Each structure stands twice: as C-alpha cells, then as structure tokens.
C-alpha cells in the first residue's frame, strides 16, 4: 500500500463527535473521510443537513492540507479564512464520503478543493473551496 | 369554509425543529426574530471543538448554525414553511470565537422570488458589531417535504 497516507494525528473533537472517520482509502494521496447517515446528520427527513455535509467537507479539507504539510515537513497552526460550499444534490440516507485536493500550497495560504459523494463517486453531492491561513 | 393559514413563526417552529436531527444534536436555540430575519444560538460544548489547543467552537457547527438560521429567515420572510435546499453558502471567518463562548447567528433574507432566496448574516459571540463570521447564501425552493403537514410549522398562537 504505497498510496496510503501518512498519519497526522486524530480528527478534531467536532469531527469525531459528528461521527466522521477515515476510511483508510485515499485518492490522489489524500485520505477519504466518511460519515454514516443517522439522526446526528439529519436535516429534512431522511436527508443530510447542509451543515453536516459542510462539516464533512471542511474536515476533509483540513485532513488533506495536514497530509500535504506533513509531506513537506511543516506543522503550522491553521486558521480558516473562508469556505464556499456548493450543494449539487440532496444527501440521501446513506453513507457520505469526502476527499480534499490541494489546489495551491503557498507559504502563508492554502487553497483547497473538496468533493463529497455517496454511492457513486462520479456524482458529487457537494463541493467546497477553502482558503486556509498557515501561521 | 377555509380558515386562513397561520403565518410561519420561527419561535414556534424552533420548538419542533430543534428536538430532532442535526440541529437537535447541536442543541440550537431560538433567540430572536424580525420580519425578515431570525437569530439562533449555538451553545458552547466540549465536544464541538475544532482545535486541540484552544477551547473554541469549531467552524463546522457555525456553518450548521448559519444554514439553519438562513432557512428559517427565508420562511419567516415568506410567511410559510416552504422547503428550501441550500445551493451555495459562503462563510468568511473574521476571528475565532471566544473561549467557552456560545455563538449566535443572525441571518436576514434580503431578496426572495418564487423559486430562489438570498440571505446574508453574521455569527457573533459578545457584540454583533464584532462578528466571528460573515455569511452569504443562495437557496432554492424544492418539492414536497413531510414536515409541511406539521402544525407546529404553520405558525404560532398555541402558546
């Protein structure tokens, strides 16, 4: 398993509390996160709440950035600048997945794109772009 | 004879919304409302932290807070509970929330059409003039939602 990402510590309290976990799979060298459907993530009946989907996306973005920074031998404090979430399809009552991709890793800022999907990887349910400050 | 449909009331609807699901898990609370805006509160909680080093709320639950306040601001403005889906939500973080502080989210619906609604708002802890985040979003009305039949979402008056 050469594709397996290096370890970067545990997920933040919020992520674990929401039920997010690493699948152990990766894509483009970045870890894939997942969350099962359940009451904790439910908005309108039998669908993901937009906020829960955003939480999944945001955490996948941070995990991707930490993975890239680890490879670069860097360990800065990360501060969120902004996030824009696009909702593409309703999140149904099944597991969701997300993975981040580093669009640009600068010295002070990182631009990260994230995609979330359910049963079909080719049909994303939401995407996000995040700017993250590194100090 | 038809009785007029009661107006959607965010305060009344909150009693039902925040008993279930994601927003119930976050323990969101109703705090205030106007003709075209709603304010909700996200209580501080140990297991919602985003940072190992500081006891401040993660940014994720703040998005949930603002998403929910957005939807309710839209229903408040329209006067009816008509289900909406978030198309696009942007959050600009201004500063971290204070340690052990709950965060309030006030969102106004500044433009509404038959099929779309536009919102903007702020998340803050102490002072609304010194926000934790600014938010802008766009929502679209969607088809039937089983919650539409719920009398608790069709307006107040049963206090």
Helices, strands, pairings?
The complex is a heterodimer of chains A (135) and B (159).
Chain A: H1 13-18, E1 21-27, E2 30-35, H2 50-71, E3 78-87, E4 96-105, E5 109-117, E6 124-134
Antiparallel strand pairs in A: 1-2, 2-4, 3-6, 4-5, 5-6
Chain B: H1 10-17, H2 21-25, E1 29-33, E2 37-42, H3 59-78, E3 84-93, E4 103-112, E5 116-124, E6 133-141
Antiparallel strand pairs in B: 1-2, 2-4, 3-6, 4-5, 5-6
Tell me what you see in this structure.
The complex is a heterodimer of chains A (135) and B (159). Chain A is of the alpha+beta class. Chain A has a single domain, classed as Roll (Thiol Ester Dehydrase, Chain A), CATH 3.10.129. Chain A contains two helices and six strands. Chain A has a six-stranded antiparallel sheet with strand order 1-2-4-5-6-3. In chain A, a hairpin with a 3-residue loop joins strand 4 and strand 5. Chain A is globular, with a radius of gyration of 14 Å. The termini of chain A are far apart. With 159 residues, chain B is of the alpha+beta class. In chain B, 21% of the residues lie in helices and 31% in strands. Chain B has three helices and six strands. Chain B has a six-stranded antiparallel sheet, with helices on one face. In chain B, 45% of the residues are buried. The mean pLDDT of chain B is 88. Chains A and B meet through helix 1, helix 2 and strand 3 of A and helix 2, helix 3 and strand 3 of B. Strand 3 of chain A pairs antiparallel with strand 3 of chain B, so a sheet runs across the interface.
DSSP helix fraction of chain A: 10-25%
**Which stretches of chain B are low in confidence, meaning pLDDT under 50 for 5 or more residues running?**
none
CATH topology of chain B: Thiol Ester Dehydrase, Chain A
By CATH, the superfamily of chain B comes out as: Hotdog Thioesterase
DSSP summary, beta strand count of chain A: 6
What is the mean predicted local confidence, pLDDT of chain A?
92
Domains of chain A (count): 1
Silhouette of chain A: globular
The oligomeric state of the chains shown is heterodimer
Structural class of chain B: alpha+beta
Strand content of chain A: 35-45%
Distance N terminus to C terminus of chain B? 25 Å
How would you spell out the order of helices and strands of chain A? HEEHEEEE
């Amino acid at each position: 398993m050469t594709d397996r990402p290096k370890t970067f510590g545990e997920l933040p309290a919020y992520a674990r509390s929401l039920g997010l976990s690493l699948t152990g799979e990766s894509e483009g060298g970045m870890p894939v996160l997942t969350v099962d459907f359940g009451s904790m993530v439910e908005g309108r009946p039998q669908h993901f709440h937009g906020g829960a989907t955003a939480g999944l996306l945001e955490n996948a973005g941070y995990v991707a950035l930490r993975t890239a920074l680890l490879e670069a031998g860097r360990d800065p404090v990360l501060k969120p600048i902004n996030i824009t979430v696009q909702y593409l399809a309703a999140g149904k009552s099944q597991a969701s997945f997300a993975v981040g991709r580093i669009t640009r890793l600068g010295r002070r800022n990182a631009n990260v794109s994230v995609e979330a999907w359910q049963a079909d990887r080719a049909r994303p349910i939401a995407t996000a772009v995040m700017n993250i400050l590194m100090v | 004879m038809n009785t007029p449909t009661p107006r959607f009331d965010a305060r009344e609807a909150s009693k039902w919304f925040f008993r279930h699901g994601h927003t119930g898990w976050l323990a969101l609370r109703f705090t205030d409302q106007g003709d075209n805006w709603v304010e909700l509160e996200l209580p501080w909680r140990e297991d919602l932290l985003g940072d190992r080093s500081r006891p401040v709320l993660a940014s994720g639950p703040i998005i949930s807070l603002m998403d929910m306040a957005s939807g309710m601001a839209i229903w408040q403005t329209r006067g009816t509970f008509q289900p909406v889906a978030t198309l696009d939500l942007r959050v600009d973080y201004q500063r971290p929330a204070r340690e052990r502080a709950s965060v309030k989210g006030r969102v106004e619906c500044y433009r509404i059409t038959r099929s779309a609604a536009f919102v903007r708002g702020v998340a803050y802890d102490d002072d609304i003039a010194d926000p934790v985040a600014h938010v802008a979003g766009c929502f679209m009305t969607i088809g039937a939602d089983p919650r539409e039949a719920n009398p608790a979402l069709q307006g107040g008056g049963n206090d």
